[in-house]
Amino acid sequence: xxxxxxxxxxxxxPLNVAFLVSSFYQVLTLSDLEADFINPYDASSRINYFxxxxxxxxxxxxxxxxxxxxWIMFLMTVPVTCYHVMxxxxxxxxxxxxxxxxxxxxxxKFRIAKLAYYLTIVIITVxxxxxxxxxxxxxxxxxxxxYILTA
Length: 151
What we know:
Layout: H1 2-34, H2 40-68, H3 71-89, H4 104-150
Helix pairs in contact: 1-2, 1-4, 2-3
């Protein structure tokens, strides 16, 4: 039971928060580009810097959920991981500087959808972490309380 708590606190929560922050930064960069606060080259380079590490982290998170037996979390992360693999295989994962204005609205909507998805995953991760912590606390309380009553 303690390993579940470590899994949620050490692996899932930091990765999901990193994905959430990365998606928010990408939406913010696309909004700045839309308002013409930054040029297309800077926006593309800022967004492309985070894409491959996000794909690798999402794949690792999906694999960790599979190997540790967290099936619901695995089933929730598999579609995004498969979509990332598909984008990477088609070489469509990076934003092109010359076509950034043509795909700006679609990319912005996609990043906002990913932001909502990662926010949902963070909320579920915190919920599972709290549930596992309460289970452990309750088990220790029952064990310790039984020990005091029998002594």
